[in-house]
Predict the structure.
Amino acid sequence: MEMASHRKNFGNFIRALRLPFITASILPFIAGSSLGSSDFHLIVFLLGLIAVISAHLAANLINDYADSLSGVDWLDKKAYTYFGGSKLIQEDIFREAFYLVSSIRFYAVSFVAVVIISAILRDVVVIGFYLIVLLLSFFYSHKPIQFCYHRLGEAVVFLLFGPALVMGGHYLQTGIFPDSKSIIVSLPFGLLTTSILFANEIPDYGEDSKAGKKNWVSFLGVRRSYILYGVLVLAAFAGIAVNLSYGYFGLISIISFLSLIPAAIAMIILQRHYASKYKLMTSSKLAIAAHGLASAIIVTDLICKKFL
């Protein structure tokens, strides 16, 4: 009985962290770390990975905390796994304070990792970059800025999960910033992650509107927002094509175009079933699959180019 209780608490903690989503930060960071032609600094990479994962989990937690305070997560208390937050506060499993304290702890872990990296590299600029990322992730949903409440959330997600991670990983390995190659390489990652966010905003649009949370769905409305999802996906794969033309990606990355299949099915579901949250869980799952498959193939390609 006690063991079952521990397993349930652990499962709820994983749900609160939204742990499966961390691939969206891990993969672009690995990609950026694999771009340099210099020696690979393993310790710096591992510490960077700790910083990236911890900061991402902290952002997930603070997002649920802020959305609970604003009231948006209370308008629909059901948990849909892929969108709408973990809803553990609304189910009275965890308190808001748990999310706030846990978020601060994860931010602290990431900050310590960054400070150690800074000491190893003898470069305080690393800390400056990290603080910018921290502020963007914290104020993505938290007051007083709340980027995602003012149609800026998508742009922030693109920056954080694209250029920030890829260029950050590249900088830690090479000390080079800014770098045009790492910017171009970051585009597919940032756009695909933004497409996931956008697909997840469509089923939440009713509650978001009532709570004053404005996002890009408001530009076209839920009926036609599948078009913007398609534009984001096509832009991401156009970015892959550009990287192939420049020689930044190798032939392995061509396989990533298979990810257009789940993305296309997700778009069809968004078009036909925009009013059904339960059916839109499938479109969210497919959008995540498209991102994960394409990103994993690109990262595999870059690792092979780097080390083989």
Observations:
- The mean pLDDT is 95.
- Residues 180-210 form the longest helix (31 residues).
- Residues 38 and 174 are 7 Å apart (CA to CA).
- The chain is about 70% helix and 0% strand.
